[in-house]
Amino acid sequence: MSAPLAFVKSVALLKDFDTEILECLATLLVPHQVEDQEIVIEEGQAGHSLFFIADGVFEINKRGKPAPINQLKRGDYFGELGVLFHEPRSASVRAIGPGQIYELSAEIFRELFEAHQEIMDEVKKEARKRKYFLNPQQIRTNANTISRMKAKILAQKLASLDLFREIEMDILIDLALKLNKEMTRKNQIIFSQNDPAKAMYILAKGSVQVIDEEQQSALKTLSAGDIFGEMALIQESRRNATLQTLDFCELYRLDKADFKAVIDTHPEIASKIYQVAKQRSTDS
User: Are 21 and 8 in contact (CB under 8 A)?
Assistant: First the structure.
């Protein structure tokens, strides 16, 4: 017995498909009658299909949680996380009273949705939200791992710059974790003379001109490997010049609070920055 077309059309996950596709899909859904307290999927098991609720109430339970974390009803669906991400079931789903569900195999699901990439993207977006809700610690752990991998790559780039060449990699990784990447266009003002000092910058690519607005003259040009903005942070003063890009630049911004943390925690980096600041003070 196939699923009624009216029900298939009522499922939010399927609403954007053409009627012809939904008619076909209705014939592929496998109906199941479930009993009160019946467990439909169990946490830790492999996920080979997903389910649509036609009738009844179902609760989501997770090991270590004293109470159900959510309830599902007609029109809702579950089991997509295991299918989408090829992972074991992240929670168990149990019927609260008798109900009816329709099962869609992973193979048909992928064939249907991968042919409609824009819908698949939206499904994955919603699935990630649900995945975070079910496994926030795992998501945070994965995010932290990715952040550290990116920081290691950036640290290797920093190590190639003269200023940081002699500093240990672990220290550079800690610095990289605090940096924010900025890509600028040509002739962009990074900050203006007399602005409050909010950050220091590391110039990775491109060139930047230092301009004295009062004298209306260019003082110098900075290139890849240079830092700027540190003087005002150290002196707790306003900017003494305007910085404007001469071409497209790749910058790494170290915000004021993080600048202070780096200076306090890593004397090796502090020494390098103070040397640059002292030289600039002497030159001026």
Answer: no
Using CA atoms, how far apart are residues 41 and 57, in angstroms rounded to an integer? 14
Q: How far apart are CA 112 and CA 120, in angstroms?
A: 9
> Strands of 249-255's sheet, edge to edge?
180-184, 249-255, 199-205, 227-228
What is the Rg, in whole angstroms, of the alpha carbon atoms belonging to the chain? 29
For 172, the token pair is 């550079």
Distance CA 48, CA 86 (A): 9
HSE (CB half, 13 Å, CA atoms) of 161? 21
3-state secondary structure of 8: helix
* Cβ atoms within 10 Å, residue 221: 11
Contact 146, 140 (CB under 8 A): no
The structure's pTM equals: 0.52
CB-neighbour burial class of residue 18 (10 A; exposed 0-12, middle 13-18, buried 19+): exposed
What is the separation, in whole angstroms, between the first and last Cα of the chain?
A: 85
Cβ atoms of 199 and 228 within 8 Å: the answer is no
| Cβ burial 30-56 (10 Å sphere, 16+ → b, else e) | eeeebeeebebbebeeebebbbbbbeb
Contact 228, 258 (CB under 8 A): no
Enter the DSSP assignment of 4.
Answer: P
Cβ-contact 5, 23 below 8 angstroms: yes
Share in percent of the chain as helix, strand, coil (round to 5): 45, 30, 30
User: Which tens digit of pLDDT belongs to each residue from 207-262?
Assistant: 999 999 888 899 999 999 999 999 999 999 999 999 999 999 999 999 999 999 99
